[in-house]
Specification:
13-stranded parallel β-sheet; single chain; 21 strands; eight-stranded parallel β-sheet; 183 residues
């Protein structure tokens, strides 16, 4: 097992993945700032059964997504800021992953959190200016928790949660149909 720690860095306009963990790597990524105005790759990618603690970071922009997870991730107290009308997913969770995402703020992503067939705890996050669905969970297993999230969208068709999963625990999520001003 390989361990990586990335703390207190600034990465601007890197055309590729700024941080990539592969092949079972374990990483702690805290207090960093990542910014990119274009390109396809995600800014941070966790693949190949790797594991990350991603805490107190700022991501501006992104490619197909800001943070891609194919493995295990704890994503806490981060700020994700997409380019309005140009961003797809904020956090994209691939099949057979395990993710805890809490106390994050995601702005201007079409789909702030998107997951398929993964174990999830998504709590106390805030989503601003999203299009359609704030949290999309396809075929996620019994016991996933989605609680105390707040969404702010001026899209009249927006919804907080869309799922095809079995018995997902959903509590106290709130959708406000007009955006709250950014801080």
């Amino acid at each position: 097992m390989l361990f990586r720690s990335v703390q207190g860095n600034v990465c601007l306009d890197n055309g590729l993945v700024a941080i990539g963990l592969v092949a079972g790597t374990v990483g702690i990524v805290t207090g960093n700032q990542f910014q990119r105005n274009g390109g396809m790759p995600p800014i941070v990618a966790i693949k190949g059964d790797s594991s990350i603690t991603f805490e107190n970071n700022q991501i501006h922009g992104g490619g197909v997504c800001a943070l891609l997870v194919e493995g295990r991730a704890t994503i806490v107290r981060n700020r994700f800021m997409g380019r309005e009308g140009e961003q797809g997913r904020g956090i994209w969770i691939w099949q057979d992953s395990s993710v805890i995402a809490q106390e994050n703020r995601l702005e201007n992503y079409g789909a702030p959190v998107s997951a398929t067939k993964s174990e999830l705890v998504v709590c106390r996050n805030q989503f601003y200016n999203f299009e359609g669905v704030a949290i999309s969970m396809g075929e996620c297993p019994v016991g996933c928790l989605v609680a105390e999230n707040r969404g702010f969208s001026d899209d009249e068709n927006s919804v907080m949660l869309q799922t095809t999963g079995e018995k997902i625990v959903e509590q106290d999520n709130q959708l406000v149909k007009s955006p709250e001003p950014s801080e």
